[in-house]
Amino acid sequence: MFKKQFTDVQFLVVTMLVVLALGAKTFASLTEPDELQLPSVATNDAGLGVSRTPSSVGPAKEAKPRWDRFAHHDLNCHKKIEKPVVAINGNFVQLQGKHCLKGFKFSELDIVNRQNGFAASIFESGSDQYQTDLIQLEQGDNEIVIRYRENSGALVEEVVKVRSNRI
């Protein structure tokens, strides 16, 4: 008639047995080595593996160094001669060169692209060397204007023509 009530000790023993049973199963599943199933690889008639790429991506091209984005220009180191147009494959160019003027101040050197008004930052790299950051180019011909003062105080403006072949 009257059912026997579980005591606290009996309840804890039953709970511990359930936890141990579940814990043992979980521990066993974590320590068993998984069987690795590899998908089958499609082969062509020659038995070589066929690789797949996304349709929007063309075949991989060989990476080549981007040395074609540098242009060298020396300031007043020789007689003025007509310089050819520098062709660049990209939308940036970086000028580097040297100056042959005594008492030259890099703070008075300005380099600007006339087509878009981009003013380059100029960095000294040695006692008579300079280098710019990347100068943004427009598609087609660009005139890079280099302004500086000579020893006599006269303002000199040189133009380097750069053609951007590809943007």
Task: Please tell me about this protein's structure.
With 167 residues, the chain is α+β, with helices and mostly antiparallel strands. A hairpin with a 5-residue loop joins strand 8 (140-149) and strand 9 (155-164). It starts with 7 loop residues before the first helix and ends with a strand. The chain is built from one helix and nine strands; from the N terminus they run αβββββββββ. It has one helix at 8-31, and strands at 70-72, 86-88, 92-98, 110-113, 122-124, 129-132, 135-136, 140-149, 155-164.
Task: Describe this protein with a few key phrases.
167 residues; alpha+beta; 5-stranded mixed β-sheet; 4-stranded mixed β-sheet; 9 strands; elongated
Task: Please provide a brief summary of the model.
The chain has 167 residues and is an alpha+beta fold. It has one helix at 8-31, and strands at residues 70-72, 86-88, 92-98, 110-113, 122-124, 129-132, 135-136, 140-149, 155-164. Helix content is 14%, strand content 28%.
Largest sheet: 5 strands, mixed
| Unreliable stretches | none
Query: What is the helix/strand order?
Result: HEEEEEEEEE
Globally, the shape reads: elongated
Whole-Å distance between the termini? 93 Å
Radius of gyration: 36 Å
Helix content: 10-25%
Structural class estimated from helices and strands: alpha+beta
Number of helices: 1
